[in-house]
Amino acid sequence: MTRPHLPPLHALLALAVVAVWGTNFVVIRWGLDDLPPLTFAALRFTFAVLPAVFFLKRPAVPWWNLAAYGVLIGVGQFGMLYIAMTQWISPGLASLVVQTQAFFTIGFAMLLAGERVQRFQLAALGLAATGLASLMIHANADAQPLGIALVLVAALSWAGGNTVARQAGAVNMLAYVVWASIFSAPPLFALAIGFEGWPRVSGAIANADAGAWAAVLWQSVGNTIFGYTVWAWLLARHPAATIAPLSLLVPVFGMGASAIMLGEALTPWKLGAAALVLAGLALNTLWPAWKRRGVPSGEPA
Prior knowledge:
Layout: H1 8-31, H2 37-49, H3 63-87, H4 91-97, H5 101-113, H6 119-137, H7 145-168, H8 173-180, H9 185-195, H10 198-207, H11 210-235, H12 240-243, H13 249-262, H14 268-293
Helix pairs in contact: 1-4, 1-11, 1-13, 2-3, 2-9, 2-11, 3-7, 3-8, 4-13, 5-7, 6-14, 8-11
């Protein structure tokens, strides 16, 4: 039975998950100092599979579904994200731009499921697009056009993965992600060998220090095992409208951690662009709940 309000312990667990997901962008940046991006992504999904796959039953979904999700999330989302973060976009801004997956997910629902776009969704998209345009206009070392484009490809792939996962129905999401990761690691290793070269791949793995391996394990254990397990546990006990909006804090943690741990400057234009994107995401996420409650748009729920 779901409950509309979060007990303090559940609220702390939710905040812990979004904190892990947000600060993870800083961890990615640290890992990229020692590991090439595609190699890093391949190792991330290798340890998302092992050893968890031996303890989780394969979800009752077709293999093609698992493969499609694994390739979209592994190669499309994280492969592109890691490449972008090597030099073309800062961790804080990457954590913000990738959240545009929400709008791509809506677009896929319109194309594939015949869902109709709502006026609030158009307004939300307009706000987020204005924020992204501001990032493009003020492009510098923190957010170059190529970096923004690569992260948008990552967001598009994430949305594609969301669409595939929806077709899987009600399954154990942790088991689903772990088994789908079987199809993430091999193409990532193949691409790493093809583009980064076997000497660089093997040398990076052989010479990786404790910090590099900690970054890999943070991706697989922290994000996948802890993050997905706790998030699914919370969603099973509370309405989605109570839990889902908390994901808006991911870029807040991402930009904050990047500023504190990496010295990323939070300039006025960057904060303004972030406010526009977050406003769009908030409107898209929260408006349906406000409308159902009958609360006027200018008043807090």
